[in-house]
Amino acid sequence: MPETPFASVILGNEPGSFPHGVLAERHPAIIRQVRDALPYGPGQRRALDELLRNCAEGTVEPLPADAPDRAAWQAWGLAEYAGRSWFDVPWLWSESYFYRRLLEAVGYFAPGPWRGIDPFRPVKRAELDAPETDRELAALDGLRDLPEPERDRALLHGSLWGNRADLGFRLSAEGAEDREPAPALVADDSERLWSLLPPDGTAGLVLVADNAGRELVPDLLLLAHLLAGDRIARAVLHVKPHPYYVSDAIMADVLDGLERLRTAPGAAGEHGRLLRRAMADGRLTVRAHPFSCAPLPYERMPDDLRAEFAAATLTVFKGDLNYRRLVGDRRRPPTASFAAATAYFPGPVAALRTLKSEVVTGLTAATEARLVAAGQRWRTDGTHALVQVN
């Protein structure tokens, strides 16, 4: 899309803005959290301290000459942005490169015992093992006797709301509307989403995952529900090839989530065992494409990934970062067309997203006016969500 005053790429150089706060405050906090989470040695701790100083005072530095993905990052913009302030390059790029530099600092790609060790694993495991997860999994038992359309809605809303999955489950139980306020959906194309999965059970679904832990588990449950009910014949789950954005899911997180389900009582355990069988017989496969960690919009996806999405009956993108990459991390008005923003996509596509950043499309003028009048930070505080389909 050409640069216009209404669709410019988002930068982080405006003090007081949400992107500026992420770069100036959140990233330093993440470095400190990682530094304290695992018993890194002096060299790693010095590298983390240097990254902390660089984020606050320095400019974008190149990757080491022997970095395995140096050529990819050069092509993804490093050749252009090296030497510039973190705040003066596209925010999506700056965020993504920060996490790549963080992995460099802790030796994730280097030979030695720390190679391949996820610096965010302690946080992910703590969330997955939290009592709240038990409560959310127990809520599944209340869906057994519901009509199929209500179970569909419950599992979809569980996936949509992530670590508030039990809220989504309860909302579809009889009388739930009297006990809980309806989630603040700013757009809801749920019926269109279901219409894209034909009743003959031959559909192929691609789910591009977002976060691990209590947000990945509801995604797995949704896939299990669709496979168990013969709503789809096969599913592909896309995760990140390496740690990314603190909580983004990698293969190890999928395995942790499956084990958490398998060992749970009731319906959750049944779903976990179904998913393990589905992986064994090929109905469920997991992918970790390098582009999943690229600092670029999906409009620039490589040909092999485009072909995979084109072959799917429906591709579902989960979460906030994937939404930003799907529609483009640009300053469009909220009423800009979601269909136009995703017109490049090679097949039917849906977004399930809790709003945690400023980018949003596809709202009606009335919805935007209502949200603005309420005076809340509705774009960024995680209290609103959307289901959109093209």
UniProtKB/TrEMBL annotation:
<keyword id="KW-0464">Manganese</keyword>
<dbReference type="Pfam" id="PF01937">
    <property type="entry name" value="ARMT1-like_dom"/>
</dbReference>
<keyword id="KW-0479">Metal-binding</keyword>
<protein>
    <recommendedName>
        <fullName>Damage-control phosphatase ARMT1-like metal-binding domain-containing protein</fullName>
    </recommendedName>
</protein>
<dbReference type="GO" id="GO:0006974">
    <property type="term" value="P:DNA damage response"/>
</dbReference>
<feature type="domain" description="Damage-control phosphatase ARMT1-like metal-binding">
    <location>
        <begin position="23"/>
        <end position="367"/>
    </location>
</feature>
<dbReference type="InterPro" id="IPR002791">
    <property type="entry name" value="ARMT1-like_metal-bd"/>
</dbReference>
<comment type="similarity">
    <text>Belongs to the damage-control phosphatase family. Sugar phosphate phosphatase III subfamily.</text>
</comment>
<dbReference type="GO" id="GO:0016791">
    <property type="term" value="F:phosphatase activity"/>
</dbReference>
<keyword id="KW-0378">Hydrolase</keyword>
<dbReference type="InterPro" id="IPR039763">
    <property type="entry name" value="ARMT1"/>
</dbReference>
<dbReference type="InterPro" id="IPR036075">
    <property type="entry name" value="ARMT-1-like_metal-bd_sf"/>
</dbReference>
<dbReference type="GO" id="GO:0046872">
    <property type="term" value="F:metal ion binding"/>
</dbReference>
